[in-house]
Recover the amino acids of this structure.
């Protein structure tokens, strides 16, 4: 039990007073819910130590991070550009799926109940949202494939 309390105070960065230590020890001894939670926290801490490396001291954190970034191998420009590309086919497939899902929205049973009871007060915002989604998707599609589209349609 003592190691649980010591670890909790170490995590807070405080040194517990003797009275506070006794009070918390008694509470964990007699409260099964808190004792169970404290054990779960300790097990989670032990499990997470394997996943996350320890952080360097706060003063050296920036230097350590920049050293790790400098140690990374340089990526050729063509490979970095290829990693950011999304294929034209992928954009079109996702766009067709979005268009299909947004247009079939009107055929749902709940939509008809709400639309008939609310009328134009409901349909106007829905139309604005659907128009905004499709416009944004189209703008992102054209912006990300402007070079390819201009070459394909001879707009250069």
């Amino acid at each position: 039990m003592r190691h649980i309390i010591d670890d909790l105070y170490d995590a807070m960065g405080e040194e517990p007073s003797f009275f506070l230590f006794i009070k918390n020890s008694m509470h964990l001894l007699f409260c099964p819910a808190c004792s169970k939670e404290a054990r779960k926290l300790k097990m989670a801490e032990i499990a997470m130590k394997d996943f996350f490396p320890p952080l360097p001291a706060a003063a050296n954190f920036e230097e350590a991070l920049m050293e790790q970034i400098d140690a990374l191998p340089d990526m050729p420009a063509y490979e970095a550009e290829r990693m950011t590309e999304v294929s034209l086919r992928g954009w079109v497939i996702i766009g067709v799926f979005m268009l299909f899902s947004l247009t079939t929205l009107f055929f749902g049973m709940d939509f008809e109940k709400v639309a008939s009871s609310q009328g134009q007060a409901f349909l106007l915002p829905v139309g604005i949202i659907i128009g905004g989604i499709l416009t944004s998707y189209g703008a992102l599609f054209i912006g990300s494939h402007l070079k390819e589209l201009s070459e394909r349609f001879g707009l250069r």
